[in-house]
Amino acid sequence: MKMTTPPDSVPYFTPETISEALELINNKSNLSFISGATDVMVNRQQGNFESDGLVDLTNIIELTTSCPDGDEYKIGAAVKLSEIIANPYINEYFQVIVEAAKSVATPLIRNQATIGGNLLCENRCIFYNQSALWREAAGYCLKCGGDICIATGGKKSCLSKFVSDMAPALISLNAKVVMVDKDSESVIPLEYLYSGDGIKSKMIDRKSILKFILLPLNQHIKSTFKKLRQRKTLEFTSLTIASTLHINHCIKMALSGIAPNPIVVNTEKGIPFDAIYEEINRKAKIINNDFFDRQYRKTMLKTYLVESLTELNSL
Fold first, then answer.
1. 213-235: per-residue pLDDT in tens?
2. Domain 61-120+160-313: CATH class, spelled out
């Protein structure tokens, strides 16, 4: 394991095993795990991320591999998005994951960003993801220590939006994740990873490591993927919807960009559109915290939902 401290920076550790990484995070105060760090470094420059040191997981070989494993396909959390896109097996059996990966950022960023990092990226809001100078002028929101949500004017809860694009695709496929800490290893459905709290958006302890993503093999027929953003490159999502038709004729849908957590809907072929839209709308928290206004995003939600259900119900 190496440790470096570049000028004007913080200690930077590169463990080569999971046990080394866990030992570091538990024996030193206020360290943070990073993988691709494409999101973390921007947040750090904006003053939205504080840590006394960084533990880079990308040198841990176990986290950088993907392969079939019995009746599941296992993807290491440090596999880069560009590797997901280039993987022949994933292209053949999990095309929706490739579509999701291609929608993230730019080719240059995808060469650095990892699937685990995208699943754990911080919630975003146009009133939070700004420079420290901007936030000082506009006022501090709940997410950065203030006492009011600037987007809603409320004082009770932060509604920053969940923006992972890989999560909806993986959740629609019934993905599970393997989490490990110093005491145990556990397997949970991916959607259980998220709290719905805009400030502390994950249910996991910061001393835990996302180890693998597990996908069931031969359990789905077709998937669809839709994403709304200002530009086709670089932008975080304003609305993402992934839908998968499974072999039991059930449809699982997962959405991001419209609530502090992924919205998950389980339905069946032929269920009326209005019933599905009503359930999603009931769970959504679409507010004016995005470059697109609230009404436009609600309109596009209907459009994407109709397109997705039409594709899947036609099979």
1. 999 999 999 999 999 999 988 89
2. alpha beta
